[in-house]
Amino acid sequence: MQNKPIIGKIIVQGEVECLSPLHIGNGKDERSDLDVLLDAQGNLFIPATSLVGVLRHATKNIAPQEDWKTFWGYTSEKQDEQEPGQQSSMRCSDLICQSQTLKPVIRDGIEIDNITGIVKKQRKYDYELVERGTRFKLNMEFSYKEADKEFVRRMAATIYTLLNDKQIRLGAKTNSGFGEVFLLENTAKIYEFEFSPATKNDVLYWLTRNFSAKQPIAVDTLGTPFKINTNLFSINASFWLKNSLIVRSYSADPDAPDATHIMSGKNWILPGTSLKGAIRARAERIANTIFDVSKTESKAKADGIMRELFGYVEEDQNKDNKKKARIRVKEAVLPQFVSEMQTRIKVDRFTGGTIESALFETMPLFGGKLDKIINLQIQVRDCQEHEAGLLLLVLKDLWTGDLAVGGEKNVGRGVFQGIQAIIEWNGKKICLEEDFGKMTTQQKETLQGYVNALNSYLQPPQEEAHA
C-alpha cells in the first residue's frame, strides 16, 4: 500500500494547556539537578517525539494491529524483506510555548526512609518544571490513501478525543500528577483537504497553508473514535484540614521565612509526590502488618504488592531492572487557606534552655473551616482486588486522621478529616459519606470483599499454612 497515492489530509490545530506541572528533561544539570528541555533560543517547548510516543502507546490495543502498525509506521527488521517499511500517516510539529517570556521554575524533592520516617542523607535534589497553565501551539497532520481513509479518519478523531478528554500525560513523574495536558476546545480547529480533480482548490490551499480559506469541520464528521479502555480503579475523595499543613518550600530571599508552604503559580498545592510518598509508606506498613511472619512467601507477596503498585528501580548497578508504577496520585490545588508566621525554637534537653541560634520561622497553612475542601484523586491501572483492598485501608487512615501528610507531623500538622469519597471500578460506583453507616449492605460487602482479598492474598489458608 506504500506506493498508493495520498488522496487527502486532515489538519488539527489548537493550543494545548498544562493542567499540572510538566517535566521533560534534557539529561543535564546546569540549572538544577534535573533541567527541562529548552530550544536553541532558550524557550520552553514540548518535543513532538514525546507527544507522538504517548499517543502511540495510548492507542496500541484499540484497533487491529496491522492497521495500527501501518498508521504509526514501521521499519523492516530483516534486510532481505521486500517491503522495507511504511512511513507514518501522522506528522506532528514540536509544540512551541505561546509565551516567549515564561521560564521554568525549580522545585525541591527528597527521599524519605520508610523505616525511620526521616530524609535519607544526601537524598535532597531539585528539578525544573514547566508551570501549570502554560500553553503550547499544537499542529498535527494526518495523511490517508484510498485503502486506509476510514481508519485514518477514525484515528484522527480518537487522538483529538484523547487530548480533549484530558487523558494524555507527558514527560516524567506522571504518576505523581505531572504532565497532564489537554486541548483547549475553543482554540481547536480541524480542516480536511481532499486531493482529486473535483477539489483542485484543496490542493492549492494545502500547499500554500491557506487554512483560513477552508471551513473547519466538527470532529464528529471524521467518524466514531475508537474506544479507549479506561477501566481504572479510582478514588475521588474530599477532606477538610483539621489544623494546619506545610509542605516546605525554601526561598533565596534572606528576609523571607525559613520555610513556607509550596505554591504552583499563585495557588497553594499539595504535591502529588508528597501525597504519593505518604500513601506508599502507609501501604507498606499495612502490608507488612498483615502478612504471616511464619511464611517467607507472604513477605515476598507483601513486597511484591508494593513493587507492582508503586514501581521500583534496583539500587545496584543493574538499572535496567525497573518497573513503572501503576498508581497515579494527582497534585491537588488547595483552597485559599490562611498562611501565618510561626516562630519556633529548639530546646536543650539537658539544661531545658533554648539552643543558641536555633530560632526558625515557618509559614504553614491553617484550615479548620468546613467550606475549605481539599480534593484528592487516586487511580490505579489494571488493578487487582487485593490492591484495591490495600488502598481502601490507606483511605480509611487518611479519612480518620491516622495518616498525616507533609512536614512537621510531630506537632500535629497534615491531619485530614474525610467528608466524601467516590470509589469507581468495574462499572460499580460507591459513594462514602462522613458517616459510613449510610452505606447500603451491598456496598459494605463489596468494599469488605476487597479487604478480604488482601487478607487472603497475604495470609494463605490455615490448612495450607500448616501443610
TrEMBL record:
Keywords: Antiviral defense
InterPro entries per UniProt: CRISPR_Csm3_endoribonuclease (IPR052216), RAMP_III_fam (IPR005537)
Residue ranges of domain CRISPR type III-associated protein in the record: 16-180, 265-416
Protein's name in the database: Uncharacterized protein predicted to be involved in DNA repair (RAMP)
Gene Ontology biological process terms in this record: defense response to virus
Pfam families for the chain: RAMPs
PANTHER family: CRISPR SYSTEM CMS ENDORIBONUCLEASE CSM3, DUF324 DOMAIN-CONTAINING PROTEIN
